[in-house]
Request: fold
Amino acid sequence: MTLLAGLLDVLLRGISLIAFATAVGGVAYVLWVLRPLQEWTAHLAGFVQLALRLITIAAFTLAGAQALVLFVLHPWTLADDAGRWPLAALLHTDYARTGLITIALALCLCALGRTLMPRPRSAPLWTGAVALVLALLVNSAWLAHGVSRLTHREVLMAVTVLHVAGAAVWIGGLIHLAAFWQLRRREAHAGGYGPVVLARFSDLAITSVAVLVLPGLYLVWVYVGDLEALIGTGYGVMVLTKVVLLLATLTLGGINLLLVKSWRPSRPDPGPARRIPALVEAEVGLGVTILLAAASLTSLPPSVDMGADRASPAEVMARFVPKLPRFASPPVQDLLASAGRIDDTLAERQPAEYAWSEYNHHMAGMFVFAMSLCALMERRRAARWARHWPLIFLGLAAFLFIRNDPRAWPLGPAGFWESMALPDVLQHRLVVGVVVALALFEWQVRTGRLQNPRWRLAFPLLCATGGALILTHSHAMFNLKSEFLAEVSHAPLGVFAVLMGWGRWLELRLPEEDRRIPAWLWPVAFTLIGLTLLLYREI
Reply:
């Protein structure tokens, strides 16, 4: 149960970060972008009301997620042999007090948001909202790595607050900007607000990104230390993952900035108005993925604390040296005879287990590589048969369902529901569900069986969700070096899946004349997923 609780903790932490960013970023968005607009009209009031609703919902979600962690998840994890939850003892810890303060502040912000809805121009109420947001930011420092350091504790906590503030204002503001755009589409006479809102938000985004990046560089220097630790520890690789996703998001943001500067409201049907919404939506998706990666990062020990559990660059690079894929699997009887119990997290993995896992990854790579080639061939109109490539996903799903966890049903002695308590088994089965959904939705879209344009968005959303799931993937938590070396290729897999999803999203959402680059980006990312799986090594 401890391992499952660890996975649920990461997921709830991710939900908390997204809600935190939406609430904090929403207050900054209204005060920086909307309220300074000189003419207060019914349309502007509608935009503020929408932002207040999102702030209220986000604050309530933050309080609820924190309450689940504090009152259910952690007491359940710490229960004794008789099943008694040590709730009273837990609530006397500094960690619990910080969580309780977060819940109280979030509920106050939720109530204040409701109070502001009929009085959105009240300066005293907005002053109270700012005070609550600042208190939430300061309180967040007691949940970060800096609070446990023996040296420079106060400096690290202060820098962490700045880093978190930059991320929350930027990504949370993007969420509100995407919501603004959806409402703007429905309001026929509100189009004139687009350029001015985007221009003001661009200033806010540039400032918040600077506040995010500069403290982030200092935290990387303190917690990672050197280049070897950056590529030789799980913490370092997750930092690199965040950097790659950040660069992708900033690229879209830079394109948006150029479009905003070229936009003139007087032009009929301006090009930027057709391009910016899709780019903002993709920015939001990448930003949310960054928050999920950050949630995973906070569950890992800093690289500087790893010591003997740090892998050398040579050991990491050996995992990516091209070799012939493994096309022979050890018999399941041999694996079951040598492997430990499925719930024994301290058991040393045996050669048969490594061979089994490598075979699984390599065969999955063959499925994915075949689909990516068909997807590329489909772009040539002559190969119409290639449009059926999503059906290959069904073969991949069947293969994964049977072979992912040989010690669990249907191959092993552990029952179906019994094995679901283990996070790696649960995640593997969730991935199977995502793969089946990918097959059904995308095949029906490509063959014309689903005509509604909204169904076309299911594939990119599922790809992006699958990539985020991979980035929170977990195996054993006790053999840190061997665990890291076995999972070091999961980070690029997750990144490629996320880029594939949002690349396909842009292909579908951008005007036809702007689709050429994303139309090639996502099949290339698809191909890289297949190649990475074929290169997968555990020994």
Summary: DSSP finds 20 helices and no strands in the chain.
